[in-house]
Specification:
- By secondary structure, this protein is of the alpha/beta class.
- The protein has 14 helices and 12 strands.
- It has helices at residues 2-23, 40-47, 50-57, 73-82, 92-101, 149-161, 179-187, 200-204, 216-220, 233-238, 240-259, 261-272, 279-286, 300-309, and strands at 28-33, 64-69, 88-91, 109-113, 115-116, 120-123, 140-142, 174-176, 193-195, 211-215, 227-231, 292-293.
- Strands 8-7-9-6-10 form a 5-stranded mixed beta sheet, sandwiched between helices. It has a 3-stranded antiparallel beta sheet with strand order 3-11-4. A two-stranded parallel ribbon has the order 1-2.
- The protein is globular and about 60 Å long.
- It starts with a helix and ends in a 25-residue tail after the last helix.
- Residues 1-22 have low confidence and may be disordered.
Length: 334
């Protein structure tokens, strides 16, 4: 009897220990972003230590947050799968690819949208008036060949202009480059075009001879989410307080930006050490009604359906909500 009681006590102790270990959340997270003012909410979160603030409010003290910069979402996915990254951010397309390829194992899903913003395809060649005029001599810089949101938008444009059979017609012209590098290459005429993002696409339009030949909103038929944040279901389940802290911090950052755009523009210049732009230039850009900071996923299913149709992803979600964790379910997404 005594042995049974001891065994029972040991089992109970082991169970309690396991439960305690299971409830312990990580003490260090890494968050990644790319380049551009579309990632301003993450910059505000970093500069104001909002994740740490929200984590402390939930009983997690001294959370360490490391911030990393990547050139594209495809590279972030590799880091996310390796466990060296907890929150990735980038265009809709890399997140959707990660969702489709990790179903049943890592189960990567979106945390939230960051914004809705148009993407402009700019060229330095006056002879090019539309994508019809691009030839094998041209090079188009974008964050990641075939898988970035710019690459997928270009494929969608090809389907409309050349027909469904030529959806990949311009893929051979694309080269993987970060937005800063692509802008510099466009200015130096090392590439013909850059499918960029704010503020680089607007900076380029100030260069002699540079003009826009494609706007993503025209391809999609209206506004759509540009950037999103995503993570694994494992992290989501094992770190509910930190996850909730991240979401609350993002909400707070977006509210700050929308409440005081001038302060947000000043913060962007300070964070990026941007010497080219002025607060006035950035505020004019941010006042454009097409540029919106919001957590609501907007028309992501337009990208998803297209990616499924051309075989980029093998499974089609029934709803945009299948792509995201439940914290955005109450938002008017699409």
């Amino acid at each position: 009897m005594r042995r049974r009681l001891i065994a029972a006590a040991l089992c109970a102790g082991l169970s309690l220990g396991a439960a305690s270990a299971a409830n312990a959340e990580v003490s260090h997270i890494t968050v990644a972003r790319e380049f551009g003012i579309s990632y301003l909410p993450l910059m505000v979160m970093q500069d104001h230590h909002l994740i740490q603030k929200q984590a402390a409010a939930r009983g997690i003290k001294d959370l360490k947050v490391t911030w990393s910069k990547f050139a594209g979402g495809n590279v972030m996915n590799e880091a996310l799968l390796s466990g060296s990254l907890q929150f990735a951010s980038g265009g809709v397309a890399p997140m959707v690819i990660a969702w489709a390829r990790t179903r049943g194992n890592y189960d990567i899903k979106g945390v939230s949208a960051l914004n809705s913003m148009p993407l402009l395809l700019n060229t330095n060649n006056p002879a090019i008036k539309s994508i019809k005029d691009l030839t094998a001599k041209d090079k188009i810089g974008l964050p990641a060949v075939k898988v970035s949101i710019q690459a997928v938008t270009l494929q969608m444009a090809c389907a409309k202009v050349f027909g469904p059979k030529d959806v990949h017609k311009l893929d051979p012209l694309t080269v993987t480059m970060s937005h800063p590098d692509a802008m510099a290459a466009l200015a130096a005429h090392e590439i013909t075009a850059h499918f960029g993002a704010p503020p680089f696409e607007y900076q380029e339009l100030q260069l002699p001879g540079v003009h826009t030949i494609l706007n993503s909103y025209d391809v999609l038929g209206g506004p759509a989410t540009f950037n999103v944040v995503w993570t694994s279901s494992k992290f989501y389940k094992e770190n509910p307080k930190i996850y909730a802290a991240f979401v609350a911090a993002l909400h707070e950052a977006i509210d700050e930006i929308n409440h005081d755009k001038k302060a947000a523009a000043e913060e962007y210049l300070k964070d990026t050490h941007d010497k080219k732009d002025s607060v006035a230039f950035l505020m004019k850009m941010m006042d454009n009604p097409q540029l919106v900071y919001t957590m609501t996923p907007e028309h992501v299913m337009k990208y998803v359906r297209f990616m499924h149709e051309v075989g980029t992803i093998k499974v089609l979600p029934a709803s945009w909500k299948d792509l995201f964790f439940p914290n955005v379910d109450s938002l008017p997404g699409s």
